[in-house]
Each structure stands twice: as structure tokens, then as C-alpha cells.
Specification:
Layout (H helix, E strand, L loop, with lengths): L1 H4 L3 E5 L4 H10 L6 E6 L2 H10 L6 E5 L5 H7 L5 E4 L6 H6 L1 H21 L4 E7 L8 H14 L11 E7 L1 E3 L5 H10 L4 E3 L5 E6 H14 L4 E5 L3 E3 H12 L12 E3 L11 E3 L7 E3 L3 E4 L19 E2 L5 E2 L12 H10 L1 H7 L2
Parallel strand pairs: 1-2, 1-4, 2-3, 4-5, 5-6, 6-10, 7-9, 8-12
Antiparallel strand pairs: 9-11, 10-15, 13-17, 14-15, 14-16
Amino acid sequence: MLNEFKGKRILVTGGTGSIGFNIVRQLLQFEPKQIRIFSRDDSKQFQARIRLDNDPRVSMLLGDVRDKDRLRMAMEGIDIVFHAAALKHVLGSENNPFEAVKTNVIGTQNVIECALENKVEKVVGISTDKAADPTSVLGCTKLLAEKLMSSTLNYKGSKQTRFCFVRFGNVIGTRGSVIPLFCRQIKQGGPITLTDPGMHRFFMSIDQAVNLIFRATETMKDREVFILKMPIIKISDLAQALIEVYAPKYGYEPAAIKIKDIGKINGERMHEKLVGRDECFNALEMPEMFILKPFLNVTDTPVQDDEYPGAKRIDPNEYSTETLELQKNLLTRDQIVDLLKRNEAYIEESIF
């Protein structure tokens, strides 16, 4: 990674968000020449500057990926772009679909076009497991963002910019996700509100997420989607584990915190998918991740499977939280408690 980032100028869109900020924080150890944080909240930028000890290599740029002219200026002279800016909440996107399209789709198109104009070397976008066979507005917009990048071959001509996406599950310790919500409810004495206790989700830590992003940056050829293999957690087990860990911290007996079933919200599904059934026909598997290779055009030169060391073709079957083969990755209550304790610092940062 030192060779990948040393001396480079790097732009991180959404660089004050949970994932974006930790991309920045971890990039600094690899001796970049400059990191530009591009985001639209000046208060979060102020806080990020303090948390980074006013590192002179970091520049704060106010702007929105919807504003192509501003984004073009921010990307001037940049070598690598990490595109983490997004609207990421299921219900918010269901209720505001036009806004989700403007940020997640048009914003991604702007990133692509500005990267090509500025001859950026690499662009790495951040997606979600909800993009696999999507049922929500969020999933649809993120799948379309992936498709935009996978289609860049049709637009870039002789330009050498390369693109890829990484696809995440739920990330422990990110702001606005289910874990800080449950912690806040525990702090208030309960109840914890579950939309459906039978839901299962893929989970990963922030460090795992950033490591996947960096691994994709190093491994990418062009236009792939990289997907980390993640453990599965049943949401009701997560709620119980959080009660066990956090109720005593907030002065409550665990038995005093109740759990309330409030019903599934629009756009939610009971089980998440990492790889859809149709995607499997063009997918590779490595010990720690899946790689969705881009579908080819007539004039495209295919990347051979052996160009990804250790990769093999996978069976044509969807990979989801209800696939029996993946149920071996279902965490027990004790394993969830251990996972929460190992990520306690990030969780504490995320509680609102």
C-alpha cells in the first residue's frame, strides 16, 4: 500500500462521513502528498480537522458531488479518488427518491466525468449489499451507480482512468446505522425497536471496510465490483448482545431493557444478498472476497481469471444471509458480544 499511495494526491468525496473519514485517517500512514476532503458540511469538516490534528497534508473543500463545476475544480491534479459521498439510508431514500438519484446516480456520473477530464489514475466507489437484486430505492440507485462505472469503457476513449466499486454490508460504528440507534435507545432505558426480529444482515468493522477499499485499489484491473465476505448477524441477537454490553454501562440491568417489534419499513428485506444469482455467472471467489468481473463489449479485451491470484469461479447460486452455505457464518450471541467489544471505540464515536 505504501507504493500505491506514497506521494499521491488523493480526493475523498464524503470524507467527513464514517467511512470517508477513516479512509483519510488510514491513508495518512502511507505518506500521500495531499488528501483533499470534499464534503458539504463545514461543521463536520471543522471537527475532522481537529481529529486529524490539523495535519498539513489534508485540505478541506466544501462542495457537493451534485455540483459538477465545483467537483471538477476539486479534482484538478488528483491521482486517486475515493468516492464515498452518498445518501445511504433506506427509509430516507424511499421517502426522497429524487434526492437519492441526484446524489447517488448523478453525483457518481459527475465523479466519472470529472475523473476522465482530469486524467485521474484510479476511482474507487463505495456501494452496498442492497445493490444486489435491489428492492429499495437506495439499492436501485447504488446498483445504477455501479453500472455507470462498469460502462465507462464506452465513454473514456484513449483515457487511462480505471474504475471499480466495493460493496459493503452493515458497517459497525458508522453514524446513523442500527447499532448507534439501539445504543441510544438503551441509554434512554429502552425499548429497542426492531422492524422485524427475524431479519439477518451482513456486518463488518470499519477497519475491514477500509482494508477492502485499499485492497480493491491495489487489485483492480478496471470496472470490477469487490465484495468482502462477511459474517451474518440476526438482528434480534444483535439487540440482545447490545443490551448485555451497554445496559450496565448506562446504569440498567439488562433485563430492564425491553425489545419492541414495530414492523418492517418500506424498502427493507428480511435477508440481504452479497451476490445475486445472475451476477454469479461472471464472479470470482477469493479467500476473503468476491470479485464481479465487468461484462464485456465486443471490442473489450477480457481480463483473465488468473490475473487475480488465488481466484476461482463460483457456483451459479446467489450468496445471501439465507443461503444454507453461508449460514455457517452466522455469529452466536457470544461472538457478537466479542465483536462489539472489539469495535467499542468506533461505536462510541457513532452514538448520537
